[in-house]
Predict the 3D structure of the following.
Amino acid sequence: MTLPPRVKAFTQHVLAKGQTTKQYEDEMKRRFIEEPANLKLLIVVSKLLTGFDAPSCTYIYLDNELRDHNLFQAICRTNRLDGDDKDYGHIVDYKELFQKVQSAIAVYTSDELDIDDTDGDDGNVIVKDWLKEGKQKLEEAREALHYLCEPVAQPRQLEQYIRYFCGNAAEAGALEATEPLRISFYKGASTFLRAYADLAQNLSEAG
């Protein structure tokens, strides 16, 4: 039997030698869940809407006509928190399904509905304005950095910042004593940069 060109190309260039399609898909799902840094983008067609849980999944791009239960299940892929860095998920809607999203949420967020295991949470989804949320997150991160640096002595040049975050170089143990300050600064700066990156292309729209 002659394989269609697409199937032949998939078999030759995607599958490893002797690997089945199922083995390939299972491995990709495992990487997406367990090694998100090594698999940042997963493109699927009518797959992984149910029974698939990857807390690190932050963005979902909708480019298919989904509705009702399938639509709700799809957007639920982003609603699991994954540490302090993830407060919510992003839904990029290429099919203008927002009204359908609202209807699906209204129908399927009943307290009596058991969507899937959510570690004690009710699994309900709240649709938020991502620009408003992003702006608030950016402002909070900037304010946190401002308060952290408030005690830095005037004139607040590089020398004063180094002295504040690293201590007096002439004193033994100064670096160890100021380590909590530096850790707070690293975390605060990282949070600020991520918040800015989320809005970088939409700063005007965000106000």
